[in-house]
Write the structure tokens for this entry.
Amino acid sequence: MVVVEQLRERSAGPWSGLTRIDIDNQYPGHLASGQRPDGYESDASLLARTIDGLDQLAADYPGATLLVVAHGGVIHNLEQHLGLESGRVPNLAGRVLVRDEEGWLPGEQLLLVDIDRISGGDPNRI
């Protein structure tokens, strides 16, 4: 296993470690309006370090097929950059990426486990 710091989740500043409910309680209306607190990492910063991390992996393991594990926010940000319309990335889902001389290209989205099927739609059963 190799840990690539550039592929860590977005820094959420003072929101780090909070649930959506906590954020709504402590910062009413922020999520709904798209407001973010000081210290919240921008999409551009997240994307730049994600691409750097992926490029480093490609350089370190040329021609290899790799499984890269990251948070949904990292995957979503990368999908947006690649021109894909995606909502929230489901738990235990991912995206195939292929590197060519032009850069990173998107492949299929993978759903490793259908959480709704397992939980019957009840997130408390997971």
About this structure: The beta strands are 93-100, 103-111. The chain has five helices and two strands. The helical segments are 20-26, 30-33, 43-60, 72-81, 115-119. The first strand starts at residue 93 and ends at 100.
